[in-house]
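Sequence in, structure out. First:
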Amino acid sequence: MERYDEKFERVDERFDDVDREFKRVDERFDDVDREFKRVDERFDDVDREFKRVDQRFDEVNRRITESKQDTDRRLGEVKGEIGEVKGGVREVKGEVGALRAGMETLHAGIHQATFALWIGSAGVVVAIIFKG
């Protein structure tokens, strides 16, 4: 009977070994579960960061769009102002042309008056000489 007791004792030891091995496997599964939980938490962090970045991109895109619209509006105003300036320049060119024509007429009149004065002065000099 002792032999059976020894066999049972060895079988009990083997069961104990198997139980210890199952405990180590269970502990390892617990470690793996904790790792998976940390990985899941990290994924959640990354998802939150992506959402934050997406919101930031949306804000930047909104600002770019607003700036583009404001720039387009301002360019339209500037083009209108340039058109007004061009019209003013055309008017000034017309006025300068009219002034130039007036100056030419005045210049011609001054020449004629100078010529008339020379002739008149020559006539007075001739009259003085003949009377004299």
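Second:
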Amino acid sequence: MRAQITLGLRQGYSGPRIAPDDVIDFLMAEVTGEVSEGRCWLPWQVTDSRLVYVHENKVFNEPSLVLSTDRNVHRNGLSEGEWKVLVEGVAMRLKGRFAQDAVFVTYIPHASIVIV
């Protein structure tokens, strides 16, 4: 299973723009903390994207990032529920750190995962 967190790069609907490097620094600090405390950590793939949406009858578009991580039972042995708790915890911390009105998490099932 794959989780994707979609994070707009604007604080709220009209706030200042968020630098992608600030998000990457946040993720690196998350992983560093998890590793140093001996907790399970999630690897992240970060992809540039755009959000197009309507708010108060106005159409907006803004840069965004899609943060993806795969559930790998061979690497960390987490149940699906435990893994989702970790993913959604990161999403909540991103929401707070970057003053977002909402952060979306999408779960995508895999037909299979191959580790090479």
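Remark: The chain has a mean pLDDT of 89.
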